[in-house]
Amino acid sequence: MIIGQAFDLLGRYCRFMWQVLSKPEKWSVFGQRTLQEIYKLGVDSLGIVTLISFFVGAVVTIQMANNLDNPFIPTYTIGYASRETIVLEFSSTIVCLILAGKVGSNISSEIGTMRITEQIDALDIMGINSAAFLAAPKVLAMVISVPLLVCYSMCIGIVGGWVSGLATGMVPSDDFVYGLHFTFKSFYIFYSLFKSTLFAFIIASVSSFFGYNVSGGALDVGRASTKSVVVSCISILMVNLLVTQLMLT
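Given the sequence above, the corresponding C-alpha cells read:
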C-alpha cells in the first residue's frame, strides 16, 4: 500500500514537472519573475547562511583542535580538517537542509495559499500554464542562487574557523592558513557545487509540487508545507549518498 502511494506520488510529481519545464509563454515575464525570486529566495537567505556558517566553522575548528591535541599531529592539520568538513559536507548539504526548511516552506505555503484562494484556477481559466508560471521561476532562481550561497557559506565558515582559532589561541594563524592550502583539490569545489545544484532543484520542485496540489483550507496548506520540508530533506540525503558514492569513490 505504501509503495503504491509512493509510486503514485512520484508519477504525479513527474507529470507536474513536465508542465513546469515547458517553454515559457513570455520570456520577458519569465525573466522578470526569476529575478524577483532570486532576490526573495536567495538574497533574503544571506543572513541565516552567514550566521550559521560562521558559528559552525568556529565550532568545527575548536572541536578539531580539541580532538587533535597530540604533539605528533602537526597543528596545520586542524585547518586542513576544518576545510574538508566545511567544503565537502557542511556548506553543500547542511546549508541546503536549512534552506529546505526556510525556503521550501515559504514556496509551498505561497503556492498553496494561491490554490485554496482559487488564484491558480483563475490562471488556468485564462489559458495560462499555471504550473510553469508559478514554479519555473522559483526552480531556476534556486538553481542559480543556492550554489552561490554555498560558495559564500564556504568562505564564511572558513573565516569563522580562522577567527575562533585565533581568538582562543588553539591554532596559530600561519598554521591554519597553511592547512587550508595543504593538498587542496579543486574537484571538491565542483563536487559541492554540483550537489548543491541538485539539492536546489529538489527543494524548489518538491515544495512547488506540494503547494500546487493542496486541497482544502488553511490547515491543509500547513500540512503541505510540512510534507514538502520532510520529503525535500529525505530526498537531499538520498541524493547526497548517491552522488558521493558516484563521484568520490
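The chain has a mean pLDDT of 89. Try to locate this feature in the C-alpha cell string yourself.
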